[in-house]
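Lest this sound abstract, we think one record worth quoting, the chain in one-letter code, the fold tokenised, each line plainly labelled:

>
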Amino acid sequence: MSCLFRLKLYVIVVVEFIVELKLEAKVRGVCFYAITSFAAIFLFVMMLVGHPSVLLFDRYRRKFHYFVAKVWATLTVTPFFKIEYEGLENLPPPDTPAVYVSNHQSFLDIYTLLTLGRSFKFISKTGIFLFPVIGWAMFLLGVIPLKRMDSRSQMECFKKCMDLIKKGASVFFFPEGTRTKDGKLGAFKKGAFSIAAKTKVPVVPITLIGTGQIMPTGREGIVNSGFVKVVIHKPIDGNDPDVLCKEARNRIASVLTQA
């Protein structure tokens, strides 16, 4: 029996246990982080073992690492909420570089997005890389570090994204810049759209619905019951960052207002 199969059986048992007990939000939160940590340690070892081969054969996309990350995210969220996908046919082929953008409601957003199985590079605060296991895994995934309010770091991040796209990788932005506390869509920064315009790759807008209700911003210790919907909109092409930004925000907002 393979290790992954055993891990899958473990998660199935945990799912049935959690559903049967109908645990309160705080207890579900403790269980969530316990499963996250357990799965992360096991799967990080897989990433570490495979890293030399990834650097040799797939340095920029790192598809093996993102497959492992998808397994980790799926194992982590499955016991707590279901994810419904709409518009999967709008996802570009896995090897097609693109700029993905989404609204940002919750700590759970990245878990949810990883289940899509696309090897896009996230941008993250530099401090997160110091977290044991999770931060190390982010480094192996090729997540792009960014110091907030640091113009030099922002420029380096911009150049790194441009370079990755030119070499066939995709990048992911939360153009609001931070998580919203009330679930309302904030103003979009134009960095992601400038990168898309300069590199002539499509922008893929994604709307996340429900993550903010399950784990609200500022209350990361709880996991409420509920479900999440991921809506992938049709890619947008263009060479005007302002137009790309406005159109992407409109598409994301159009679904949020219906939720």
